[in-house]
Amino acid sequence: MKLNAYFYLRGELGETKRIVKGSRDSPGNTKNTIMQVEGTSLTPKKRFRVGGITYYYRLGKLQACPSKRSTLKKKKKKDENGNIIPDRTPKQRKNNIKFTFARYMFAFIRERFGDLPVWKIAAAQRGMTDDNLIHATNYKYLDEKGEILDMEGFQVSLGSLALPLNLRATRIGTLVTITWDDSRDAPSAAPTDRMMVGIFYADYRDTFTLEKETGATRRDGKCEITLRDDDGEVCIHPFFARADNTAFSEDKAITLPDTE
Q1: CB 101 within 8 A of CB 145
Q2: For residues 24-48, b (16+ Cβ closer than 10 Å) or e, as one string?
Q3: 227: Cβ–Cβ under 8 A, 6 or more apart, which residues?
Q4: Phi then psi for 233, rounded to 5 degrees?
Q5: Which end of the chain has fewer surrounding CB within 10 Å, N or C?
Q6: What backbone phi and psi angles, to 5 degrees, belong to 122?
Q7: What is the pLDDT at residue 72?
Q8: CA dist., res. 113 & res. 119, Å (int)
Q9: Domain limits, CATH 2.60.40.10, in the chain
Q10: Tell me: the pLDDT tens digits for 154-208?
């Protein structure tokens, strides 16, 4: 006995279409139902459901799929002894944890720069984003917790401006004095270039300080800054910025031991 079921749906323009549900006892039709649509006026954006089947148009042709799709479970891999093989090795998991912590650390450091476009300018020159550039440059200087592992290796600034060859610093308690000799007046070394100083504290490797307003220029030959703490070793990273903040120099790392 052949059974046909008819469903009538009204199209967008008012025409009636008839959907004929194929024979239940026809060969190969135990799970998938063959559907025929007659006289439909549905547009390609229209969808409708009949008997758990969703019908829709794709490239001008009527398509059908189950209204509810089963969720595919990822098959677990097993070794020759039947033990489940982890998706990631311990080393991969460790690297993923470090990567996550590093993202937080770099975000914190970029916040210290504020609207100072040191990394944005350097990144634009390389066809990168500032986030990607600081990560690519300094990721190797962080430990597995995302804290500063190598205070001297960390690159605070990148740019085309020149640094004085004899840049040096001394420390007495919290007072740090930076001196240099530079009488040049050139595009890469203007007398009005302003000195800025990045600071890492050995006892606080999860933080970073940037002194942007030191008041010192290249022609001054001297800059003084005050540390927030007189305990422990510090590593300062002085660099120069053009007066209008359109160019910067690389930084120079100078480690200063605890003076007490």
Answers
A1: yes
A2: eeeeeeeeebebebeebebeeeeeb
A3: 171, 174, 175, 176, 199, 201, 234
A4: -75, 145
A5: N
A6: -60, -40
A7: 56
A8: 9
A9: 91-256
A10: 999 999 999 998 999 999 999 999 999 999 999 999 999 999 999 999 999 999 9
Asked whether the whole model's pTM tops 0.70, one would answer: no
Q: How far is CA 192 from the centre of its chain?
A: 35
Domain 91-256: which CATH class?
A: mainly beta
Cα angle value 199/153/184 (rounded, 5°): 70
pLDDT, tens digit, for every residue of 107-158?
999 999 999 999 999 999 999 999 999 999 999 999 988 899 999 999 999 9
Q: Output the six-digit token pair for 22.
A: 């194929």
Q: How far apart are CA 238 and CA 224, in angstroms?
A: 11
Length of the chain equals 260
Q: Is residue 81 pLDDT above 90, yes or no?
A: no
What are the angstrom distances between the C-alpha of 223 and each of 56, 169, 212, 235? 72, 9, 12, 16
Q: Could you tell me which residues come within 8 angstroms of residue 235 by beta carbon, excluding any fewer than 6 positions away?
A: 151, 152, 199, 200, 202, 253, 254, 255, 256
